[in-house]
C-alpha cells in the first residue's frame, strides 16, 4: 500500500496541469487556488510517505524506478515546499502576465519532472526526468518571448544539451561495465572500470555541474535569470540548480572518492569568490542575484566536500546550506518581482514601499549568516569542518580563509541590492506601506513566510541535538556580525567604483551543437560496445530528449 503514496505524488502535478490549463484561459481564480492546493498536498506526501517506499513501472524494456530514501525526502520536501509557496505567490502575480495558461502548464510540468528527479531509483530514470525538467523549464525562461529571452533560452538549452550528453555517455559506460543502471553500482565502476570508470565519473560530474551552475559551467545562469519572469527565476535558482547538487551527492554517496572531494572544494571556493565579486560589480538586480547563486552553490560544494573529507557522519551542514539558499533566494527573486510589478517595471517609483524591502533585508541577512537564521547555522557548521581539516595542511587553512572572505563579499553584494531599492524608496516614499489589493497582500504573505522559515529552520539542529558544537558562543556570534559589517563597509567604500567586466563571449550554438553531436556519436561507436537489447531503451530514454533540444536550438530563432 505504501507505494500508492509515491504514485499519488507523481500523478498530482499532472492533474494540476490538466486543471489549470483550461482554467487559466478562462481567468478562473479557483483553478489557480486548486493548483496551489495540489502543491501543498505534494508537500504533505513528501513529509509523511514512509521511508523506504518503492515504486517500479515496467515499460517493457526498462523499469522506471522511484524510491524514497532519506536524501530523496530532504530534496523532495525542500522542492515541493518552495513550489507551493511560489504557486501561492503566482495567484497574485500571474494576472499581470500574458499567456498565463502556458506558464501555469509548464510550471506544473516542471514540478512533476522535479519530483521524478528527486525520487529516481536508478541512473536512467534520473537522466530521463533530469532532461525533461530542463526542457519544461526552458519554456518558463522564454515566457516573455523577447529577442533576449529566446537568445538566453537557447544558451540554456544548449548547455543543458551538452550536460545531458555527458550524463548519457557516463550511463553508457556504466552499463557497459556492470550491466545495470543502479546508483549502488557506481563504486564498482570506479574500482574495476579503470580509465573508463574515471571517465564516467568525470562525465557525471560535468553533467551535474552544468545544471548546478558552478564554475566553470556557470555562464548560462546570468543570462537566463534576467529574462525569465520573477517566479521562474525563483524556481530556477531556488530549486532547479539543486538537481545538479543532488546528482553530485549521489555520486559521492556511492563512490566515496577523496579526489572528487578535493576537486569539489576547489571549484566551490572559486565559485564563491567569482560569484560574489561579479555580483558586487553588477547593477541589474536579477543578474546580481544570478551571480549570487553561483557563489552560494560554491558554499554548498565547499560544505559537501568538507563533510566528506572530514569524515563526518552527517550531511547536516550541506543540507542547511541548500535550504538557506533555496528559501532566501526564492524570497529575493519574488521580492524583486513584486517591486517591479508594483512600480510598473521601475517607471513609477512612487509605488515602492518599505514592506518588500524588509523581506529583502531579512533574506539577505540569512544568506550573509546573521545569528538566528539558518544561514548562520550552516556557515558555523561548515567553518567547524574546515577548522578540523586545517590541521591536515595549509591548503585547508587557506580554504577556511577564502571561505570567510567569500562571506564578506556575500554581505557586500546583498547590501548593494538592498540599497539599490532603498535609495529609490527614500526619494519616492508613500504614506501607506500596504496595498489594498488582496493579490499584493498574498504576495507579501509569501515573502515573509519564506523569511520566517529561514529563522525556524535555523534552530532545528539545536532542538534536535544534531550538532556537537556550541553554535551561539560569543566568539562565533561576534565573528559573524563582524564579517557582515565588513561587507557593508566594503560596499559603501567602493560604491560606484566597481564595474562589471565582460568575460564571457557568446558562443555560436549551431556549429558547436553539430560538432558535439558528431564527437559523441564517434565516442559511442569507437569505445562503447552495447548489447542489442539496450538499443531501444537508450534511443527512447536518452537520445530522444537531446534531439528535442537540438530542434529547439536550430529552429527557435529570436525575432
UniProtKB/TrEMBL annotation:
Membrane-spanning parts: 6-24, 33-51, 71-91, 103-120, 126-143, 155-178, 198-221, 233-252, 258-281, 288-310, 322-341, 353-375, 395-419, 440-463, 475-494, 536-556
Name used for this protein in its record: Proton-conducting membrane transporter
Family: Belongs to the CPA3 antiporters (TC 2.A.63) subunit D family.
GO molecular function, one term: NADH dehydrogenase (ubiquinone) activity
Native source organism of the sequence: Caldanaerobacter subterraneus
UniProt KW keywords: Cell membrane, Membrane, Transmembrane, Transmembrane helix
Entry's localization field: Cell membrane; Membrane
GO terms (BP aspect): ATP synthesis coupled electron transport
Domain named NADH:quinone oxidoreductase/Mrp antiporter transmembrane: residues: 120-386
Amino acid at each position: 500500500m505504501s507505494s500508492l503514496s509515491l504514485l499519488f505524488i507523481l500523478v498530482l502535478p499532472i492533474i494540476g496541469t490538466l486543471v489549470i490549463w483550461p482554467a487559466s484561459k478562462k481567468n478562473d481564480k479557483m483553478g489557480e487556488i486548486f493548483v496551489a492546493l495540489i502543491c501543498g498536498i505534494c508537500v504533505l506526501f513528501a513529509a509523511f510517505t514512509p521511508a523506504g517506499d518503492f515504486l517500479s513501472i515496467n515499460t517493457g524494456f526498462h523499469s522506471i524506478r522511484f524510491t524514497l530514501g532519506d536524501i530523496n525526502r530532504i530534496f523532495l520536501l525542500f522542492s515541493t515546499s518552495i513550489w507551493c509557496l511560489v504557486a501561492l505567490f503566482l495567484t497574485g502575480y500571474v494576472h499581470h502576465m500574458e499567456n498565463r495558461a502556458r506558464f501555469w502548464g509548464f510550471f506544473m510540468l516542471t514540478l512533476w519532472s522535479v519530483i521524478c528527479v528527486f525520487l529516481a531509483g536508478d541512473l536512467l530514470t534520473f537522466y530521463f526526468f533530469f532532461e525533461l525538467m530542463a526542457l519544461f523549464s526552458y519554456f518558463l525562461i522564454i515566457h516573455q518571448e523577447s529577442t533576449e529571452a529566446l537568445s538566453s533560452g537557447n544558451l540554456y538549452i544548449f548547455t543543458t544539451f551538452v550536460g545531458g550528453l555527458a550524463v548519457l555517455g557516463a550511463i553508457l559506460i556504466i552499463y557497459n561495465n556492470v550491466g545495470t543502471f543502479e546508483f549502488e553500482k557506481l563504486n564498482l565502476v570506479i574500482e574495476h572500470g579503470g580509465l573508463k570508470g574515471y571517465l564516467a565519473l568525470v562525465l557525471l560530474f560535468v553533467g551535474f555541474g552544468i545544471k548546478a551552475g558552478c564554475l566553470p559551467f556557470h555562464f548560462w545562469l546570468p543570462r537566463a535569470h534576467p529574462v525569465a519572469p520573477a517566479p521562474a527565476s525563483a524556481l530556477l535558482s531556488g530549486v532547479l540548480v539543486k538537481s545538479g547538487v543532488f546528482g553530485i551527492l549521489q555520486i559521492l554517496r556511492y563512490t566515496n572518492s577523496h579526489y572528487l572531494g578535493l576537486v569539489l572544494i576547489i571549484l566551490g571556493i572559486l565559485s564563491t569568490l567569482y560569484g560574489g565579486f561579479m555580483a558586487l560589480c553588477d547593477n541589474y538586480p536579477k543578474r546580481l542575484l544570478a551571480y549570487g547563486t553561483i557563489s552560494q552553490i560554491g558554499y554548498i560544494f565547499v560544505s559537501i566536500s568538507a563533510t566528506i573529507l572530514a569524515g563526518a557522519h552527517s550531511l547536516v551542514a550541506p543540507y542547511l546550506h541548500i535550504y538557506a539558499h533555496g528559501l532566501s533566494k526564492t524570497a529575493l527573486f519574488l521580492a524583486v518581482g513584486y517591486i517591479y510589478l508594483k512600480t510598473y517595471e521601475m517607471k513609477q517609483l512612487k509605488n515602492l514601499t518599505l514592506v518588500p524591502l524588509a523581506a529583502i533585508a531579512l533574506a539577505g541577512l540569512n544568506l550573509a549568516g546573521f545569528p538566528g537564521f539558518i544561514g548562520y547555522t550552516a556557515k558555523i557548521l561548515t567553518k567547524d569542518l574546515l577548522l578540523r581539516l586545517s590541521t591536515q595542511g595549509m591548503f585547508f587553512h587557506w580554504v577556511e580563509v577564502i571561505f570567510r572572505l567569500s562571506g564578506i563579499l556575500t554581505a557586500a553584494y546583498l547590501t548593494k541590492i538592498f540599497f539599490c531599492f532603498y535609495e529609490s524608496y527614500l526619494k519616492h516614499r508613500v504614506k501607506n506601506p500596504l496595498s489594498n489589493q488582496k493579490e499584493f497582500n498574498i504576495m507579501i504573505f509569501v515573502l515573509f513566510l519564506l523569511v520566517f522559515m529561514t529563522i525556524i529552520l535555523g534552530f532545528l539542529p539545536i532542538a534536535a541535538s544534531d550538532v556537537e558544537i556550541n553554535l551561539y558562543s560569543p566568539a562565533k556570534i561576534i565573528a559573524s556580525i563582524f564579517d557582515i559589517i565588513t561587507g557593508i563597509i566594503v560596499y559603501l567604500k567602493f560604491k560606484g567604483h566597481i564595474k562589471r567586466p565582460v568575460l564571457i563571449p557568446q558562443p555560436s550554438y549551431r556549429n558547436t551543437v553539430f560538432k558535439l553531436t558528431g564527437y559523441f556519436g564517434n565516442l559511442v561507436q569507437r569505445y562503447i560496445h552495447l548489447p542489442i537489447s539496450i538499443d531501444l531503451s537508450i534511443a527512447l530514454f536518452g537520445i530522444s530528449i537531446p534531439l528535442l533540444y537540438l530542434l529547439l536550438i536550430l529552429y527557435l530563432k529570436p525575432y
